């Protein structure tokens, strides 16, 4: 049995933050899964990424630490992004899913709304970084971030991302993946009582559509579904859940692929263990891949 509340306009998923022990390990693992990984890019506050871009406008951000000293200095100065990353690695290890990021046209307004709702994760962050183009040249992209968090969930946060200076168009070769993935379908969080965090997710997603069921709650973000499942629900759909304790935690990412046969053939060719479950192909976590990856059509 499920129940629904009526919706406002949902806020679209932008990307996922996936801490990794090293970008080299992430590049090797994600490449073996058939993803095209963009060149490494450095943040001005000591972290670095190597993103995976999709044709639906979403992307993955595998996040590494380029300079621990720089990260520590910026965290002490109040940089929420770096402080949350350091806390995640301390509590959960080097690999995982630490944040869901939503698209924003006005991050300053988002911050004020989060503050009034009692959900602010800290002061907004503005920064710029170079973006390498396909021809080898670079351009600069600028961002403004507004953070939302719940103190009961120290291992997960959300933020809204406004691009104050748009990055150049993503090169077509970075949008083409050997596994045939075209976008993100679902992000799965895990918590013993998902409804305890329903208010947080409703407010950040800017919508009230909630599908409640025996395993948790689902939110339609327009271009993807955000699910918060109980451990039992996660195990029913995605296999054993290794986490424990209260608070939202990242559990799985579900990708939309053009053909599952293409994904399966690639996994076999690269000797990647997988399983069939509920019309999906599941790949368990490994170094460079901190949560379950699931593929569906």
TrEMBL record:
InterPro entries: Glyas_Bleomycin-R_OHBP_Dase, Glyoxalase-like_dom. It comes from Allorhizobium borbori. Residues 13-204 form the Glyoxalase-like domain. This is Glyoxalase-like domain-containing protein. Transmembrane segments: none annotated. Pfam families: Glyoxalase_3 (PF13468).
């Amino acid at each position: 049995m499920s129940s629904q509340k009526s919706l406002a306009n949902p806020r679209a998923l932008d990307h996922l933050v996936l801490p990794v022990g090293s970008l080299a390990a992430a590049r090797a693992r994600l490449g073996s899964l058939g993803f095209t990984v963009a060149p490494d890019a450095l943040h001005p506050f000591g972290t670095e990424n190597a993103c995976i871009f999709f044709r639906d406008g979403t992307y993955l951000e595998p996040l590494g630490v380029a300079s621990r000293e720089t990260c520590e200095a910026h965290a002490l100065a109040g940089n929420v992004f770096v402080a949350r990353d350091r806390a995640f690695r301390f509590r959960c290890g080097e690999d995982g899913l630490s944040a869901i990021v939503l698209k924003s046209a006005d991050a300053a307004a988002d911050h004020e709304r989060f503050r009034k709702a009692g959900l602010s994760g800290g002061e907004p962050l503005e920064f710029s970084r170079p973006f390498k183009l396909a021809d080898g040249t670079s351009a600069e992209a600028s961002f403004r971030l507004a953070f939302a968090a719940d103190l009961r969930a120290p291992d997960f946060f959300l933020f809204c991302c406004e691009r104050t200076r748009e990055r150049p168009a993503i090169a077509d070769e970075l949008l083409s993946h050997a596994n045939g993935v075209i976008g993100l379908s679902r992000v799965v969080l895990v918590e013993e009582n998902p409804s305890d965090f329903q208010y947080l997710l409703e407010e950040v997603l800017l919508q009230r559509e909630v599908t409640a069921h025996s395993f948790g709650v689902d939110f339609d973000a327009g271009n993807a579904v955000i699910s918060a499942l109980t451990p039992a629900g996660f195990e029913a759909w995605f296999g054993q859940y290794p986490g424990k304790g209260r608070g939202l935690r990242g559990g799985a990412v579900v990708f939309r692929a053009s053909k599952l046969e293409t994904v399966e053939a690639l996994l076999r060719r690269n000797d990647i263990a997988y399983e069939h479950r509920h019309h999906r192909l599941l790949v368990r976590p490994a170094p460079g891949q901190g949560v379950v990856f699931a593929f569906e059509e």
